[in-house]
Design a protein that fits this description.
- With 139 residues, this protein is α+β, with helices and mostly antiparallel strands.
- The chain has 2 domains: 2-65, Double Stranded RNA Binding Domain (2-Layer Sandwich), CATH 3.30.160; 69-125, Orthogonal Bundle (434 Repressor (Amino-terminal Domain)).
- The protein is 41% helix and 21% strand.
- It is built from 5 helices and 5 strands.
- The chain has a 5-stranded antiparallel β-sheet, covered by helices on one side.
- Strand 2 (13-18) and strand 3 form a beta hairpin.
- The protein is elongated.
- The protein starts with a strand and ends in a 14-residue tail after the last helix.
Length: 139
């Protein structure tokens, strides 16, 4: 699984973002910006040994990914929940769960959901309630 991003010139710097994760930073060069976005995501995931790969594309398009899917999915769910202003208990309630631990294990990266489960979890933490999967190829 990879998440798409955008890189663009902003004055003297290169601004870079991965919107679905709500991660934004900048660098003095494109290469520096790619390193900065990888570092930012790794810091946010905060798991021993977690690394991010950046896949430059054409124009302003690029992708980020990791061999550790649980870390990326955990970050996605956690950032979406924070942007929505929800507590773990509120998400558990939206999911109809009796305990917040069931949901929390996905947000902590202790479990990797199926696509069906990820769709359900994402719908519980974001007003949009859905995301689009596409086959994209970074150049």
């Amino acid at each position: 699984m990879r998440f798409s991003g955008r890189i663009f010139r902003s004055g003297r710097f290169w601004a870079i973002e991965v919107p679905i994760l709500g991660v934004y930073t900048q660098g003095q060069s494109r290469r520096d910006a790619f390193e900065m976005i990888a570092d930012a995501i790794e810091i946010l995931v905060d798991q021993e040994g977690f690394t991010v790969q950046v896949y430059p594309g054409t124009g302003d398009y690029f992708e980020v990914g990791s061999s550790d899917q649980s870390g990326l999915i955990a970050l996605l769910l956690r950032r979406a929940r924070h942007r929505s202003g929800l507590t773990l208990a509120e998400v558990a309630e939206r999911l109809g769960a009796k305990s917040l631990n069931g949901y929390a294990r996905y947000e902590q990266g202790r479990a990797v959901p199926t696509i069906t489960k990820l769709t359900e979890l994402y719908a519980a933490v974001t007003p949009r309630g859905d995301f689009v999967l596409c086959e994209c190829r970074a150049e």
